Amino acid sequence: MTVREDRIERGDGSPGLYSVVEKPDFALVLPMENEGFHLVEQYRYPVRARSWEFPSGAFPAGVTGSPEELAAAELAEETGFTAGRLERLGRVQIANAMTGEGCHVFLATDLSPGEPNREHTEQDMRQQWFSRSEVEGMLRDGVISDGPSLAAYLLLKLRMP
Q: What is the value of pTM for the model shown?
């Protein structure tokens, strides 16, 4: 991650300064099984709280690959699951007023269990399956407040009958 400040000229000709956070895109996966979803919960330092979210992450420094490869890697790392099918749902901008970072969203189905291989920073992560109605209640009640998870669920709902 880097932060830069750009000197800009506004539409009226006045000068300005714009701060930009540069981060690589990441992938978020909705692991769906038995009419529900596997979520992960972890402590998020910036908000000083634990957060229920869909599994997500970026490649480590020096590692590259396609968004599909990243989604499969994050799913396996955080949940232990391997997806028989990964369907791309779209890409969303995370905070386009301060970063170009995007989130590639995938639906994972036909899940095969395995052991998670979490990073050291994810040692307190836990995983749990929730029914679709429970997830929607968590979204509605603000239990799930992670922006990318909210946007990903909306993309899924737009594809569902």
A: 0.91
